[in-house]
Inverse folding.
């Protein structure tokens, strides 16, 4: 029987700016809580009006929110949620006031390092590669996410007809793009594609390739041109997203070094995770620390052009964070 099965469900609000990378952190943690304790989850998406978006968090108040935002306070006669889980800079001005506004009813969790009013939250679930400390801080490897064995199996079922005949080893390649720390130039994308192709061909395997929203169009085209000859499936962004299916079906996962989320999600599968290099734009110390943590866990290694196999215990930091939330709420 799950913890709390004989108790009323928790009301949980998941708050972000709606971007998938942000929302999935808060929602993944909420779903992990739900798996341990009956919970009703409500997703809230907010955005600030353009005139106020760049203001410091301390100067923002709820009337500055765009009219398209979901309400972040209960309607008249309704109660505040038991649990508030938020992610991202956009949520900070609201999250920091919830504990006081709710009269202490709502337990406030902020994922990532807020870097502002850290004492205003009941719990900060921060990546270990960010240097944040305090009595209300839980450091985890990577970030919370929504990848679970059940969700991976559901994703596989959707794409079973397209993936069932692919030869092993199956290689999932998760390609990011330009960020503040890294770039993916056309030339580098072409070089990565050639290295991936040689590794797949050397093992008579197959490729499952997907790109992020940040992948430059020309870099994507360069990789697709070089990799189209391989057995496999390339997702070009049209139709249903095979991301979960790829993770489930992969024997190896290749991840570009620009994405902490994708690396942590890949490490939750127990599959060998090979880190693909990008073009650095500035020192990326926090990514180096993350990859060092994943290497220490046995999950990840730099891609050396081969598909060496190894095993390790799947990383399950989202569940650990959920248990900590319930313990702090005295619901464990």
């Amino acid at each position: 029987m799950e913890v709390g099965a004989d108790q009323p469900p928790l009301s949980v609000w998941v708050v972000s700016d709606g971007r998938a990378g942000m929302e999935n952190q808060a929602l993944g943690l909420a779903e992990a809580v739900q798996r341990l304790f009956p919970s009703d989850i409500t997703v809230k998406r907010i955005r600030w009006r353009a005139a106020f978006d760049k203001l410091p968090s301390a100067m923002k108040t709820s009337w500055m929110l765009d009219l398209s935002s979901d309400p972040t306070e209960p309607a008249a006669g309704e109660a505040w949620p038991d649990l508030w889980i938020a992610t991202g800079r956009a949520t900070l001005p609201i999250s920091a006031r919830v504990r006081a506004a709710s009269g202490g009813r709502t337990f406030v969790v902020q994922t990532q390092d807020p870097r502002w009013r850290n004492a205003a939250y009941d719990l900060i679930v921060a990546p270990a590669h960010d240097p944040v400390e305090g009595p209300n801080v839980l450091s985890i490897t990577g970030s919370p996410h929504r990848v679970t064995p059940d969700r991976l199996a559901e994703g596989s079922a959707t794409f079973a007809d397209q993936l069932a005949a692919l030869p092993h080893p199956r290689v999932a390649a998760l390609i990011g793009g330009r960020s503040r720390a890294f770039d993916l130039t056309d030339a580098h994308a072409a070089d990565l594609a050639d290295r991936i192709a040689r590794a797949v061909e050397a093992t008579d395997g197959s490729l499952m390739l997907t790109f992020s929203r940040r992948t430059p169009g020309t870099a994507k085209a360069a990789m697709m041109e070089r990799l189209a000859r391989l057995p496999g499936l390339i997702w070009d962004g049209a139709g249903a997203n095979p991301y979960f299916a790829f993770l489930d079906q992969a024997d190896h996962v290749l991840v570009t070094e620009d994405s902490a989320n994708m690396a942590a999600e890949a490490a939750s599968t127990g599959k060998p995770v090979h880190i693909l290099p990008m073009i650095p734009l500035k020192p990326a110390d926090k990514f180096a620390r993350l990859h060092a943590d994943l290497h220490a866990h046995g999950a990840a290694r730099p891609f050396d052009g081969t598909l060496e196999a190894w095993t390790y215990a799947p990383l399950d930091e989202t569940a650990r964070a959920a248990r900590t939330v319930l313990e702090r709420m005295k619901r464990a």
